[in-house]
Amino acid sequence: MLKRMIAPSGFKLGLLITLVFCTFKLPVCQTTDSGVVRFLNTIENVWMDWKFNLRLSRAEPKELKQFRDRADVVIVAVDEKSVRTEGLGAWPWPRVKMAGLTKILHECGAKIIGFDMVFAEAENNRVQAVLTKIIEQYEKTYPKDQKFESVLHTFRAESHGDRIFESILNEVENVVLGYFFFTSADEVQKLDAAEIREGKNSIGFGTVAYTASYPGVLASDAFPKALGVRANLPGLSEAVETYGHFNQIPDPDRIYRHVPLVFAFEDNLYPSLALQILSLYHQKPVVVVAHTLTKKEYLPGYIGLYLGPAGMPGPQHVEIPVESGGRFRVNYYGRQKTFLHISAADVLQGDQRACKAVFGKIVLVGVTTIGIYDLRPTPFDHSYPGVEIHASVIQNVINRDFMLRSEHFTVWEVLFMVLMGIFLSVLLNRVRLTLGLGLTVGFLIGLGVADYFVLFLNGLQAHILWPVMHACVLFAGVSVYRYVTEEREKRKLRRAFHFYLAPSVIDIMLAQPSKLKLGGERRELTVLFSDIRGFTTISEKLDPEDLTELLNEYLTPMTDIVFRHRGTLDKYMGDAIMAFFGAPVAYKEHAEEACHCALNMMSKLGELQKSWKERGLNVLDIGIGINTGYMSVGNMGSQTLFDYTVIGDHVNLGSRLEGLNKIYSTHIIVSEFTRSLVSREFTFRQLDVVRVKGKQEPVQIHELLHAGLPDQHDAWLQLFHQALSAYRTKQWDVAIEMFQGIPHDPVSRMYLERCHVMKRNPPGDDWDGYFVPIEK
To answer: How is the chain split among helix, strand and coil, in percent rounded to 5?
Structure first.
């Protein structure tokens, strides 16, 4: 029993592959940095990108325009038009321009203004200070020039840009400033201690409102770490109440699919620009609940991110679903400029359409001019504006357009992979490999369709590529195993049996091993017997070697003909051949195939006879009997040795018909049962009605002459059938005259002799015309 349990099999290999994939899918393995996990996660992300693009390709232009009009976020861009506008110039602009832009956006009714930029350095006012002293001295000496007054006013304003911008920020309450975290030690080394300290102080009040974590767990361990910060000028930071980082971290393949909503910096948590804007939009602070993976626990790390009052989350909180590390999966709406882009130049020049477009909207101010703005490769574009990624995150949360992935998804996916692995392991070990490939491909296509239409379009994010890779590896593994083991055994069996069985029988035997057991079934088949006439006499005249060579030269082509006509070689009985048609593979034309086989055997025999005569060898002649009827077919014998054969009365009748050829001097005799199935395919002549040994019911027998309908050379057939009718009605003289009109026909001569006998010794009134042969 133990040996049987540990014996290798394709099914067990499939289960082993399933176990390996499910193990890698477990949460404890997902937290590792193994190459397999990274590869499958990368493939999963590529599949997600494809679904995003497919969804976009199916969207109508009208739908995209409606989204842009309804979106809560618009982007005011420092674009090409802005830097080419007279009076604005190249980026960076003076702070007084940014102050003016902020003031105009506020006056136009912008709900929230967020800056995807950092104002970390003070404007260089040294030159302006020198010029100011020169101008002041000039004004004391000379009267004021009215034409130069406007230029002086602009210069004085720009020379104090930081203070002007600071004053505007103090007046406007709905501004969120951005800043940038350094995550590389090399970058931090370039900063001096004072800059690091000043930067930290500048963002000191921009932390999350409430943090909860499990005992012994630091919430900061759950988020990406920052090593330094580049913040806004202290005066600007003090002028606003809200600011957030605008860091974006790509996936390992450098595609931006996730956004870190929280960074950990020196044991404090800092929300992103988008998260702070959402907090201001909902008028709810940021709440974090963290539970990270520890050495003693084997549960996935969990992070809960909420907007709501300080304290543990409840119904009043807005949940923002995030993945490991506080990463938010961005549900992109389309390619770049899916959101409305407004040129900053239009806003500064007082364009009323631009002012109307920002009313009641969340406005993100960012730089998009070529050569300056940050390009981010996303699933849609390789040059996607970073500011629009923030816009997508904000709109996702407002619309609740999340790509959700519950912590329970992994459990369900592992369970699905277990069931799928068992199903495919059973299936692939029971069907042909080609059929198994088709079913596996169909299953995977259905899986992909279900993932897109049922899950993805409903905002559910399943890792479908794990089971896809699992199924592919399982199919490949089981297929290779079957080829190496089972196919090798099949080749051995085929080589061993191809001398004894027809190829069709071997195929059935290999495909359905259950056929190799005792038992049979009752089916309508056609059986064929052929025998060499006078073989005993010939064998007495030949040496054993010559006899064997002659017999092999005859049996080899005859067997090939049987196989060619889909026949099954039952056995060789000395010089006799027994074959049947219609089994094990069932087909309707078994009677026709048997008749064609008999005619081709006679044709081949003619070629052999000519060769034997030329070589001075004994010439063989054969007789063939064919019968059709219901008979038992299957494996007959003992539990240790059996043959695939046929038995029954109709089999015996076929054997008796072969023997009748000696009496009628014919070559092929078929029963009325066979003739009734092939009457339009061949030319027959009725021979007699006989009552063979072992059967009480008489059987009408026919001689098979050739394939096809009778032609002009078969005109004598009508005369023969008329003579036979006269014979059966006891018209001896008429029959004698007619049979004499058919010269060179052994059957006619036989009937001619019968007529003379009957004429001399007339039968009684009970004579039925049936012939009862004495021999078998």
So the answer is: 50, 20, 30
In a 3-state reduction of DSSP, which class is residue 724? helix
Dist CA 703 CA 661 (whole Å): 9
Pairing mode, strands 622-637 and 668-671:
parallel
- Asked whether the beta carbons of 432 and 511 are under 8 A apart, the reply is yes
Residue 175 CA, distance from chain mean position = 51
Q: What does the block give as tokens for 22?
A: 């499910």
Half-sphere exposure of 459 (CA within 13 A, CB side): 13
727 alpha carbon, distance to own chain's centre: 75
Residue 40 tokens, joined: 């499958």
Q: How far is CA 60 from CA 334, 388, 396, 457, 646, in A?
A: 12, 21, 20, 16, 69
Q: Note the pLDDT of residue 769.
A: 83
User: Which helix (H) or strand (E) segment is 635 a member of?
Assistant: strand 622-637
Concatenated DSSP letters of 521-575: EEEEEEEEEEEETTHHHHHHHS-HHHHHHHHHHHHHHHHHHHHHTTEEEEEEETT
DSSP letter assigned to residue 67: H
Q: What is the pLDDT of residue 59?
A: 78
The two tokens of residue 642 are 């059996």
Indicate the angle between helix axes 433-450 and 409-428, nearest 10 degrees: 160
Q: What H or E segment, with its residue span, contains residue 579? A: strand 576-581
C-alpha dist (Å) from residue 54 to 251, 408, 546 = 21, 27, 78
Residue 482 CA to residue 384 CA, distance in Å, equals 50
Query: Within a 13 Å sphere around the CA of 520, how many CA atoms are in the beta-carbon half?
Result: 20
Strand segments, DSSP code E, in 488-534 are 519-532
- Which tens digits make up the pLDDT trace of 243-285? 899 999 998 888 999 999 999 888 788 999 999 999 999 999 9
DSSP assignment string, 258-310: EEE-EEEETTEEEEBHHHHHHHHHHT--EEEEEE---TT--S--EEEEEESSS
* Beta partners for residue 302, in sequence order: 291
Give the integer Cα–Cα distance in Å for 131 and 152: 11
The four Cα atoms 62, 67, 68, 74 give a dihedral, to 10 degrees, of: 180
Q: What is the pLDDT of residues 729-753, one digit of tens each?
A: 999 999 999 999 998 899 999 999 9
Spans of the chain, pLDDT less than 50: 1, 28, 126-127, 130-131, 147-148, 151-152, 154-155, 157-158, 293-300, 517-518
Q: What is the mean pLDDT of the chain?
A: 83
Q: Classify residue 275 by burial, with Cβ atoms within 10 Å: 0-12, 13-18, 19+.
A: buried
Q: Would you call the peptide bond into 584 cis, given omega within 30 degrees of 0 as the criterion?
A: yes
**Taking a C-beta distance cutoff of 8 angstroms, is the pair 687, 669 a contact?**
yes
Say what the pLDDT of residue 518 is.
47
pTM for the model stands at 0.62
Tell me, what's the pLDDT at 641? 66
Residue type, 510: L
Residue 701 and residue 733: Cα distance in Å, rounded?
A: 24
SS (H, E, C) 428-443: HCCCCHHHHHHHHHHH
pLDDT of residue 513: 58
**Cα separation, 619 vs 609, whole angstroms:** 6
Bridge partners (DSSP) of residue 679 are: none
Could you give the CA distance from residue 551 to residue 553 in angstroms, rounded to a whole number?
A: 5
Tokens of 109: 């009714």
Residues 664/694, Cβ–Cβ less than 8 Å: no
What integer pLDDT is reported at residue 719 of this predicted model?
Answer: 92
9-36 residues labelled b (16+ CB within 10 A) or e (exposed): bbbebbbebbeebbebbebeebeeeeee
pLDDT of residue 607: 94
Instruction: Round to whole Å and give the CA distance between 11 and 13.
Output: 5
The residue type of 666 is: T
